[in-house]
Specification:
0% strand; membrane; 98 residues; mainly alpha; AzlD domain-containing protein; Brnchd-chn_aa_trnsp_AzlD
Length: 98
Amino acid sequence: MRLDVLAAILAMAAATFACRAGGYVILRAIRVPPFVQRMLTHLPGPLFCAYVAPALAQWGLAGWIAGAAVMAVQLTTRSMAVSILSGVAAMAALQALG
């Protein structure tokens, strides 16, 4: 076992925990303005898009079509598992065709 790798993993875990716990501590200690509260409730959607868009762009048209399939299935079924499976199936079919 490499101690440098273990130390790096533990340091990253501690930093991640500190960031998350620090946010909870700060938001419990202070009263945030209403506009900040509204902004924080809408933040997960844009963050998810910021993570997904580069991956879709990397795959080109096939990625965007698979992403559209995920969105369509999610809007229709409201099932995350079915949506993810449909996106994987769409991407596999598009790669098999091209």
